[in-house]
Amino acid sequence: MHLDEQWALAPSVALRPEPFGALAYHFGNRKLIFLKRPELVAVVRALGEADDVRAALVAAGVPEAGWPSYLAALEGLAASDMIRARQEVAA
Q1: Is residue 25 part of a domain?
Q2: What residue numbers bound the domain in which 82 lies?
Q3: Are 35 and 21 in contact (CB under 8 A)?
Q4: Which residues contact 64 (CB under 8 A, 6 or more apart)?
Q5: 27 assigned to some structural domain
Q6: Number of separate domains in the chain
Q7: Does residue 76 contact residue 43 with C-beta atoms inside 8 Å?
Q8: Local structure of residue 85 (DSSP, 8 states)
Q9: Residue range 37-54, pLDDT digits in tens
Q10: Tens of pLDDT along 5-37?
Q11: How far is it, in rounded angstroms, from Cα 50 to Cα 57?
């Protein structure tokens, strides 16, 4: 995952707000993932409308020093098909 890539929430994924952040549920593969930081939820929600990952991180107010850990979290979400490259979402 690179800062200049475009990603979005997969169409078959729903986010349910929780006090700790959110639950992400994939209706296709039935995976359930706990997003344990509200800031990560904000990044995931911003991905679909932001120009790229960098813009989503900025929009969510994530300090640049924390970007590597958020990129790792986003890579995990991509590996679970919770988020997809934006051209795959549009297809």
Answers
A1: no
A2: 7-12+39-90
A3: yes
A4: 57
A5: no
A6: 1
A7: no
A8: E
A9: 999 999 999 999 999 999
A10: 999 999 999 999 999 999 999 999 999 999 999
A11: 9
